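Q: Convert this sequence to structure tokens.
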Amino acid sequence: MGKHSTRKLYALFAGWTFLAVLAVVVAIAVVVIFRFDTIRNTAENETALVTSRVLAPGLAREAGNLSEANLNSFSTAATALLSDQIRTIRLWDAEGQLLAATDDGSAAQPDLLALEQAAGGRITAARVGSPQGDLLVSYAALADGVVLEIRQDYSSISSSVISNQQALLVLAAGGIIALAIILPVVLWLTTRRLKGEYDRLRYLYHTGQAIRSTLDLTDVLEHVARDAGVFAGAPLALATLVEDETDDLILKASFERARNASTQHHRKVEEWFLRRCAGTGETIAAKLDKFPYTSLLGFELQLPKPLYILCVPILGRDRAIGIVTVVRDGSQGGFKASTVQMIEEMAGQAAMAVEQSVLFAKMRSYASEVELSYDNTLKALMAALDTKDAVTHGHSERVSRLTVTLAKEMGVPKEQLVDIERGALLHDVGKIGVPDAVLQKPASLNEKEFEAMQKHPLLAGLMVSNVGFLEGAMPILLYHHERYDGTGYPFSLEGEAIPLEARIFAVVDAYDAMTSDRPYRKAMPPEDALAEIKRYSGSQFDPHVVEAFSIVIDRLQPAAHRAA
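A:
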């Protein structure tokens, strides 16, 4: 995992942890605040209920039929019930008319809503302030249409409420602390799992890139063996190819972790675990007392025993096309399920690359065969053309070889040499369209005959213009009779406007013509022909090409003398 990605992941972890803990704290705070009110209301209502149940029966008997005598008796009985807790007792009718009280009560104002609710059978309670301190005022029905008001000290209720609220705070604080510990742990484990999954996918991505970076089959399998060995921490990893036509098992690559070295092989092997994996297309895991190092690698390798092997098939469209084998020593133990899964994914990722490499190798072989057949066809064609003109027999073969040699001397890129060779070989193919009487005339050509001869570069271009693989040969075919000073044909090009290939070939063609017999003259000695070429350097020929040609001829002449 990259440094930037790691920081981003850890920042994400810290952010989520902070938000989660903050959300929990806010939620608990809301619950605590709500519970505070609930605790207080519950304590007030329960206290009011208990007090009314204790006092109401006796006071109801004293009140009787609400006559004046009974109300006086109620006041006397109620006064006797007063204490440090019970401060005031009053009796109201449903309309808010004071009937009796233990105090003066002349200025007392009832809570009409509470009276209405109490008359309906509901006990209500509320805290109110007074000069003597907070009081709990409760209303409860005493008889039909009559409501009892009891005012009692709030300090005992307050103590109970505070005690319960403190217990709730302790519980909430404990919960917050526990969650503050548990949530980061849970999020950290989740983050670690995400990091592990990210590392796994990133490793697969990079191994896939390395595998896809080459079309060479051995390089692909070498990458697979190395990646599997490094990931599994195994001392040894192998990559084996299952050949398509013969079904033979061919060891192609191995990786030794101790030396951090990969080795390429091409050894036919036949081990049971490899054959079983290839035959079933399934992963094979086994424990071995010994391992066939010599038959597989060609040398012995000492690893602590017992050994654990894992064979994972590289599955193609309909069969196993290869096998990845990982070997661990006894001190490392067997393979974890996650390791097996990862190597299976690596093998699956390599399957397409292996198939592409096999297909590319076949196509390259086919292309080489086709290209060879093309070149043989060209040589046969030019041999047939040479038989048409016995004077120039062998000319095309000679100039093609010498032109390639001169092109190399001038630093022409290697990939262009094939096109240059083909152009030199085919340079006279346009003469097929020139009458035999002109080609075989032993004397100089007249103006009309020369015009017919001048057409052969254009005829050559027309003949091969639709042959794709000869496109690179066109510069020589079209321009090999152009002159450096612009007086050549068919286009009168001048200087470097003439393609380099044509300038190179023009020198070679002239040299071969001068050193070969013609019906109208004998061959010139090589040194005279070279002197003639130098004489026309800068007019007919490119001076740089002439200079390079002189070097080539000087180098070739001793070999020619020895051959003679």
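Residues 559-564 have pLDDT under 50 and may be disordered.
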